[in-house]
Write a structure and sequence with these properties.
Length: 411
């Protein structure tokens, strides 16, 4: 799919912006602070209902305005869809698809798919586990939008259970109602955990291949992602807070660990909750479940966090995004229900829009060249850069200039 038009009203620094876009590569160039990232952030918001930079909506609305509107016209194999979102801080968003209001904003998920890499993604490698969990869950929702509901259920159950545990801590006794919430947590948690374990297994070879391709490991020129996964130094693992669920450590297709089923996971979660009962009441919070897990990144067997160089960390963060892009490219929208069921064949019309915000400035010449080769075949890729020279020759495509809140086509 590709976006043919992006329209903003009172979003970030833009009072108004009308941005026509075409398939292939578009480079967005402008000096620091001119509004390049604001544009791609809006696009990401239309796809995910969230910003990659902030957790709340208030900063997205132009100072002094009450609401922001983002409109994206999406072409999917010749069929056009108009996604419209009205962002009003402190209130639920309003959403329309093809001018018809949808019941819940999350019903727009799947109309537009994006994979966005931004400098903030360095935190995927160097930061706390919550960013990596968010990465996994975002890919899950992009693969199967209904999983947004599973995740929302889990978060709701977790909040209510934690409220109960806080009261229990004050009274120093576990209330009987906790058992009901154990069941709820185990049920929703098992769904999420099941999907994540399968996702890690599916995305790991793509991430490993992308890392090898970008960093130039082996002879990987990047033409055939997937082929060089096995020789890649980059591996993914999943560290689970449920002791019975073995930590997952995967890379190539050769290593396919047997994964537990949903019912098995729910049982294991229940046992883990029972074992932690006293500690949970003492601490007043839930200590087991997917909210305590981590995606483990290693390079040559060493944890990337704490060992990898700045450039290696950057490449790994990029590989996580490119790996998810490669996976999503081959998976149909709303397709694999658990994201673990076998995907049907690739459907090019579902190919996500790839967005690379400020990626080239941090890469050495070889990595720039190899990345350019990797993304050249994308249906649509949007690249931002502060300096023209940062974008490798041959990749510029269409060029937009951003200055003083105006977006103009170059030439
Ligand atoms: N809610 C808002 N209302 C008005 N202006 C805003 C708002 N949020 C951000 N801005 C302004 O938008 C500008 C930043 O835009 P953006 O992050 O898109 O820059 P950029 O072109 O990507 O720059 P860089 O090259 O440094 O990454 C800043 O000047 C900031 O003050
Ligand atoms: Mg920027």
């Amino acid at each position: 799919m590709h976006v043919t038009h992006l329209s903003l009203t009172d979003f970030r620094s833009y009072a108004r912006a009308e941005v026509p876009l075409g398939p292939g590569t578009t480079t967005i160039v402008g000096r620091n602070g001119q509004g390049k990232t604001n544009l791609v952030e809006a696009l990401g918001y239309a796809a995910t209902l969230g910003s990659h930079r902030v957790a709340t909506d208030a900063p997205l609305v132009r100072t002094g305005a009450e609401r922001a509107v983002v409109r994206a016209a999406v072409d999917r194999a010749g069929r056009s869809t108009l996604v419209e979102l009205e962002i009003v801080p402190g209130r639920a968003n309003r959403a329309r698809v093809n001018r018809a209001p949808v019941a819940r904003p999350r019903d727009v998920l799947g109309s537009l798919r994006t994979v966005l890499f931004a400098p903030e993604d360095l935190a995927l490698v160097k930061g706390e586990p919550d960013g990596r969990r968010r990465y996994l869950d975002e890919v899950l929702v992009a693969l199967a939008p209904r999983l947004a509901g599973v995740r929302a259920d889990y978060e709701r159950v977790l909040r209510q259970r934690n409220t109960l545990l806080r009261t229990a801590r004050a009274q120093r006794v576990a209330p009987a109602a906790l058992e009901v919430w154990d069941e709820h947590l185990a049920a929703a948690g098992a769904q999420l955990l099941f999907s994540r374990l399968h996702l890690v297994r599916r995305v790991a070879p793509h991430v490993a291949a992308a890392y090898a391709a970008v960093s130039g490991h082996g002879d990987a020129a990047g033409e055939e992602p997937g082929a060089d996964a096995a020789g890649s130094p980059a591996r993914l693992g999943y560290r689970c807070s449920v002791p019975e669920v073995d930590d997952l450590d995967v890379v190539g297709a050769g290593e396919v660990p047997e994964l537990p089923g949903r019912a098995e996971l729910a049982e294991a979660l229940l046992r883990a909750l029972a074992a932690q009962r006293r500690a949970e009441v003492e601490r007043g919070t839930s200590l087991v479940g997917p909210h305590r897990d981590d995606l483990v990144l290693t390079l040559d067997g060493l944890p990337a966090r704490g060992y990898a160089s700045h450039g290696e960390s950057w490449s790994f963060a990029l590989a996580l995004r490119l790996g998810s892009y490669a996976l999503l490219r081959g998976a149909p929208v709303g397709g694999p229900a658990g994201a673990g069921d076998p995907a049907s064949g690739p459907s090019p019309e579902d190919e996500p829009v790839l967005v690379l915000d400020d990626v080239f400035a941090e890469l050495d010449a070889g990595r720039r060249r190899r990345l350019a080769a990797l993304v050249a075949g994308a249906e649509q890729v949007l690249i931002t850069a502060a300096v023209d020279d940062d974008v490798p020759a041959g990749l510029e495509g269409d060029r937009l200039r951003v200055a003083d809140g105006e977006v103009a086509r170059d030439g």
